[in-house]
Amino acid sequence: MNENLIVSLKDIVVEFDGEKVLDGLSLDIHDKEFVTFLGPSGCGKTTTLRVIAGFITPKSGNVFFDGQDIADLPPYKRQVNTVFQKYALFPHLNVFENVAFGLRLQKDENGKKLSEALIREKVLEMLATVGLKGYERRSIHQLSGGQQQRVAIARSLVNSPRVLLLDEPLGALDLKLRKEMQLELKRLQREMQITFVYVTHDQEEALTMSDTVVVMNDGHIQQIGSPEDIYNEPCNAFVARFIGDSNIVDGVMLKDYLVSFGGQEFLCVDGGFAPNESVQVVIRPEDVEIVPPQDGALTGRVREVIFKGVHFEMHVDVEGYEWLIHSTHASQPGEIIGMNIAPDMIHIMRRTEG
Amino acid sequence: MLKTKNSRWLAAPYLVWMVTFIVVPLLIVIWYALTPSQTSAINAAAAADAATAPTVVFTLENLTQIGRYTGVFARSLILAAEATAICLVLAFPVGYALSRLRANKQHIMLMLVMLPMWMNFLLRTYAWMSLLENNGLINRLLGFFGLGPFQLINTSGAVVLGMVYNYLPYMILPLYTAMTKIDNSIIEAAQDLGCNLRRTVTRVLIPLSSSGIATGITMVFVPSVSTFIISRMLGGGSNLLIGDLIELQFLGNAYNLNLGSAMSLVLMVIVLLCMSFTSSFDEESMEGVM
């Protein structure tokens, strides 16, 4: 990743029917970065993407592309291309013509149309890149969902955009195909050195593919960071809950590196809070260690055990709070267990309404 | 649920209707078109022969006579084509705008489009007469500003206007129907890939609504080319169309059933050619969808 900004949003406000969908959103996207907007539906992630594409003109705020304000530039003049949620392939054109569509509209530096030979070369090369060699004569109606998605990606990438916008492109595919495409998109992004801006509500997808994850809710950015940061150091309860399962309990920060929750005191690695500040403590289910009751800092009664394949998911009652624990060892329902948590697995968040 | 085997009999009443009121009359028209008229020399000769042996004489005389009316046929085709073209240009943006409205608004706007069709056809055309007359509303309004009066009524322009006015909804509806099937994201994709407004229309909207365009052209051109009311009321005597000519043969002074039938036959062929031409576009676009 380098430090060159390619897209920069400043105080973007978007309203639909008087309702604020984006409320003063500011964001920088670096060149050649894989950025994911992650959030529940209605959080404004797709709206943000459409602002960058030019389909939505914000009520106020600026959109900078390569340092230039492009707020008034129509979509067809922007150096970005979009892969749409429902692919939006042209039904009257075959695979070749779909991919060639953008090239046929381009002019070279002399203001001339691209030659048919060059278009052909580029289209065939791009189809090979997305694994659709030999499909150019097919009607798009003869393609499976995954193949249609590849055509949609090829149709955008063949224009060598500076930024590729992807609006939940894998949403309609089954799980296996989705995982395949995730890796493939990541490979394409690396090979072609193009900035990808990806929208999804699937946290696993976001963590798998991204260099940077932007977690959004209610038209606001909640947290920006690497997948590791977002997962390990969620800045508030919303992010913690949205990114994977987690236990969020109320606690008190007694002093730096010492927190109290569940009636016990724990060593932790966070500091900088006021003495006795009320905080929220995030503990991932896989970070709870199960020990004999007499050895545990906390004790709880197992209420339910569910087999999940790689691990067991256990719901444990600890002084009125229900804790979620992932473990490869199955306890019995009704059993009393002890629980220990290592200091660096305890994440402290300032209190928010979330 | 009805079984397919039995359900075909449900069409039987219509079959009887069709044979009685469409096929049989059509055969009668063909018969008249191919037999000599009362006044023709061939008929006189045949009548003379009839005394000895009654025979049926077939002739192409009626069809060759139509050659005299080539001007009328040409005028009909040109005016109908003009009206169809104007309807297409007017209806295309309307159909698109309608198709982009929210569902509940679409219903209201569609009703407004069809509203003129609730009024009697004759009445609507009469209304235009009073508007276009030499001392009609439009000329009086223009006179108020010191302009005119202009000759508006009894011109070919007035006939085209009447056709456009009466048949415009038949163009809007099929275009609207075809365009509702175009997802917004396809239009956005076109823009995203570099289409300005004009190219979005020519490269995406027109090809994707071609079935609607074909239907609309047929539904406006066919009634326009065969109309006689509009031309008589708004075109005066100088803008005779095929429809007027046929009417003259059946109900007018010219009274010649055989010639009238021959004209109807030629008109029918023209209409069929037009329909097969447009439906070939229709099929092309369907191939894309299948």
What are the defining features of this structure?
heterodimer, A: 354 residues, alpha+beta, Rossmann fold, OB fold (Dihydrolipoamide Acetyltransferase, E2P), 2 domains, five-stranded antiparallel β-sheet, 8 helices, B: 290 residues, mainly alpha, MetI-like fold, 75% helix
How do the helices and strands line up, and which of them pair or pack?
The complex is a heterodimer of chains A (354) and B (290).
Chain A: E1 5-16, E2 19-30, E3 34-38, H1 45-53, E4 60-65, E5 68-69, E6 80-83, H2 95-105, H3 116-129, H4 145-157, E7 163-167, H5 175-192, E8 195-200, H6 203-209, E9 212-217, E10 220-225, H7 227-232, H8 237-242, E11 247-255, E12 258-261, E13 264-267, E14 277-283, E15 288-291, E16 298-307, E17 312-318, E18 321-327, E19 336-341, E20 347-350
Parallel strand pairs in A: 3-8, 3-9, 6-7, 7-8
Antiparallel strand pairs in A: 1-2, 1-4, 4-5, 9-10, 11-12, 11-14, 12-13, 14-20, 15-19, 16-17, 16-19, 17-18
Chain B: H1 4-7, H2 12-34, H3 41-50, H4 61-65, H5 70-100, H6 103-114, H7 121-132, H8 137-144, H9 156-180, H10 184-192, H11 197-208, H12 210-226, H13 229-235, H14 242-250, H15 257-289
Helix pairs in contact in B: 2-15, 5-9, 5-12, 7-13, 9-12, 9-13, 10-11, 12-15, 14-15
How would you concisely characterize the structure shown here?
The complex is a heterodimer of chains A (354) and B (290). With 354 residues, chain A is an alpha+beta fold.
Describe this structure in words.
The complex is a heterodimer of chains A (about 350) and B (about 290). With about 350 residues, chain A is an alpha+beta fold. Chain A folds into two domains: about 5-235, P-loop containing nucleotide triphosphate hydrolases (Rossmann fold); about 245-350, OB fold (Dihydrolipoamide Acetyltransferase, E2P) (Beta Barrel), CATH 2.40.50.140. In chain A, about 25% of the residues lie in helices and about 35% in strands. Chain A is built from eight helices and 20 strands. Chain A has helices spanning about 45-55, 95-105, 115-130, 145-155, 175-190, 205-210, 225-230, 235-240, and strands at about 5-15, 20-30, 35-40, 60-65, 70, 80-85, 165, 195-200, 210-215, 220-225, 245-255, 260, 265, 275-285, 290, 300-305, 310-320, 320-325, 335-340, 345-350. The model of chain A has no long low-confidence stretch (mean pLDDT about 90). The model of chain B is unreliable at about 285-290 (pLDDT under 50). Helix content of chain B is about 75%, strand content about 0%. Chain B has helices at about 5, 10-35, 40-50, 60-65, 70-100, 105-115, 120-130, 135-145, 155-180, 185-190, 195-210, 210-225, 230-235, 240-250, 255-290. In chain B, helix 5 (about 70-100) packs parallel to helix 9 (about 155-180) and helix 9 (about 155-180) packs across helix 13. The radius of gyration of chain B is 24 Å and the shape is globular. The two termini of chain B are about 30 Å apart. Chain B has one domain (about 70-290): MetI-like (MetI-like fold). Chain B is mainly alpha-helical. The chains are: A alpha+beta (about 350), B mainly alpha (about 290). The interface of A and B includes residues 54 and 101 of A.
